[in-house]
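One-letter codes give the sequence; each number marks local geometry. A record appears below:


***
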Amino acid sequence: MPLHAGGYLLPGLVCCVVGASGPSQVQPEDKLLDPSALRGELLRRGMNDLLQAYLDECPPESELDKLIYERQRQLAVHADKRRDEDECLAALDKAIALLEQAIEKHPNDPRAIDWRLELGKDLIYKRAEPYYNNILFRGGSKEDREQLLAITTRATKVFDDLIKVIERWNLKLQQLGETELRKLENSGEIARYRTLELQSRYFASWAQFYRALATAPGKERDKLLADIITYFTVEKKEWIETDHKDSGVQCQSLLLLGMTYRLAGKADQAVKYLGQAVKRAEALTDPAEKRSLGWVANLGKMEEVKVLRDSGEYDKALAGIQAITKSLSDETQSLSLELAAVLLEGSIYAKQADEAAAKKDKEAQAKLLAKSREPLIALATRRPQAKARIYSSVYPLLGKDPDPKKLGPFDQNVLVAGLLADAARAQQRIEQVRKEAGASPNADQQKQIAALETERAASLNKAITSSELLLADESKLAKELRAEALFNLGVCCYQRGQALRAVETFTRLLREHPKFDRGKDAILYAVQIASELNMDPANRDRPEIRTAFIEALRGLTRQYPDSAEAKYWQFFLANTLDLAGQARAAAEAYAKVDPTHEDYLDAQYYRVNCLVRLFSEAASSESADPSSLKTQVSEVIDQARACNQRITESLGAITDKQRRDTLTRSAGDVLLTAAQLTNEPPLTDYKETLDILKGFEDRYSAYRDLIGRAMRLKIVALQGLDQLDKAKQLIPDYLKRDPENAGATLGALLASMQREVTRAKERNDLKAARKAASEAVELAKWLYQWAQDNRKQLKPDEIFGIRVQYAQACLEADQFDQARTLFEQCREEDAARSESKEPSHGPTLLGLAESHYRLGLQAAKDGKYDKARQELQTASKEFLAIWRRSPRHSDLWWQALLRALETPVELRDVSVSQAEKGGLTEQQRQELAAIPGTLDRVEQTIRAERLTDNKLGGHDQAFRRLEARIDELRKRAGRLRLGP
């Protein structure tokens, strides 16, 4: 609350010039662009950036004008409440320095005497204000007193110098003749100097009081106070005796005198003058003046309470505080006064605690100290929106670098908030230095940035420690503050670079304190931070990141389900659950996505996929109930068809070509999903399959892979209905309809069949897998022959692709020799097409190596150990070559690595199997003895790769099977007693 004397200059002590207001007059044209007027108008409107640009283009004519206008600009910056506190303070210091410079360089300027008064007022009513407010209303800190003493000492000198200038002018005045005196009086100059003298002496009195306030008790302080008392009771007695409506300063003077008596320890006199100040201020009849001097009444009442407190009349002091608080209850702008009142109330209990400590009554001392913070806590609870301001006011009172272990829970919370504010200010200064430095900061700027970063980190580290102490405290008050402590800890962790811990802390806050007033902010922070972490490729293999993201999203969508934020993030919750393999939870989450969400149609599509996975899991269970499965699959089919219809109906309103294409493909895919489910147990309704796929080729003609899958489903359905002729004719009919895209479509058909084989193996349905593999080989053989006969209709890449698929089909159907032959042909063709004459087609090279590997396993099973070794050794070289040439952590890289590690294990298995039957050569016995070392190296490689990717590129189950096989082989080798 500012303690200025604005509005006190009334007739009786000074002469005021009042400008009468009237209709505005049109300015002459030559005055409209008057530079001085324009600069003044820009200042008045606070358009500082524009003013700076104008000053650069059209600087004032004189250096003095430049100083004055720059000062005004800095004062405007200081008054701009939107700016950072440090920036405003720096602007004020610049403004003061500029005025001092103007006075020093132009002491004889007619305005210099006014500048001196302005300088003194700037020092005590702008620069010193935060420090004496802290002392008068909040108790103050050592730093407050040091700063206030320095500023008021400086201000006192300014007023003393001003008074000396006025006294010298008065001496000159006495030497003038009557004519000259009358001339000066008529010009108003004499009245002006009298006004300046009264103002300077009045302001000097306040400056002297503030000096006393900042000075430690002792002789120097006593003299300052005695001088003020003498001045107001003897020299300027009329200031306290003349009615305020005539003097204009009675209320303020009575207040100052009362405060001075209180500081001097003279309670009776203090109560007398403070009471008069309050009474006079409250009795003012002019509404504007009464509002202007409201601070006199409020401060007077608080000073009266301090007198009672210092006199040990604690009950009366508390009653006085209650009266003050009650009078403020209806005021909307009373936070500053309320804060001052509760701090004063707390000081009453603190003084009693000091008395208890002197009596060595530790129990009473502890209770009173705790009670001293209760008024603050109550205010913070009553005004949650003002907590930041309350904490910022209390923070300086904790002293410089307080030990958080020695603070109570509330003060620990204040400390954390203050340290966060310190860190934020350091960050702002860092950004300002970087902005000024540009792309190439110099050595001093780098040093400054480094120091600020160290300061910022220290503040955050201490804030984290203080928050942890508060959270570990089991006292009642600490528990009440725990939600706020968690919020602050989350902010600290994020700003300190501990993003995951920040997410977990914010999420914990909402979970443990769902009614916390900033709970929504906390969970939104958690979601945003976790989203950024989850999207970072470096975190791809960190399950804890995904888990934290899911928990944050769940917190938001459960606690605030109807909020716009929850509706937006619901899709991402579902999608993240989906990616985490939680199909059931994902399906439920997808179902809750709002229809207005931009990804609503995708959500419906992904939900069907989740339902399909759930059905597949249920179907593969040994305890699956056929009746339940049939009901489940029917529901999934209904959902799939409904999804297709929903997407199809929405396509007309979508103008973005890429988005439309994506959704069309999803619509076709989900329809194929429905057809697939009708085409196999437990439903196996071939008529419905054909009904679902009626007209599919026309609706999705641009999507060859989808048509290939549809053809496969139709063939199976027609075969199931014993319509073999139609099934056989299906492909030729399609080839006639669309010969140009035949290769791609038939390739997709074959790929569809190979996926059937893979799915059957995954659900351990070996019978279905063999059947699908056999059909795939026959179709692949037919396609391969058809491609040879229709080479002119196909592109070389399409023919090559069909041959690769034929080879892969043979491999899946356990026709390893045929697969090897076909892959060798593909390798030769691939090499011939390459400029380097080196094969590079990954699937071909991997398929050829896999053929050798399977032939080796088959030979070992048949007891043909030499052939097994030969094939496995060939496979090993090829797998290693693929692994070394493939991009690290690509799918091909992982597949090759897996087989490159499996092959030496299988080779050792051949040796063990042969040894178990007897008849090993000496070389083979030596190889057998080296088995443990080989197996150890394989395990070491797996452990090393698991550090970079704990899922091993999605092949973690296969690697685990390999590790189990290694254990089994190690035991078998050990039983032979041939190892070292």
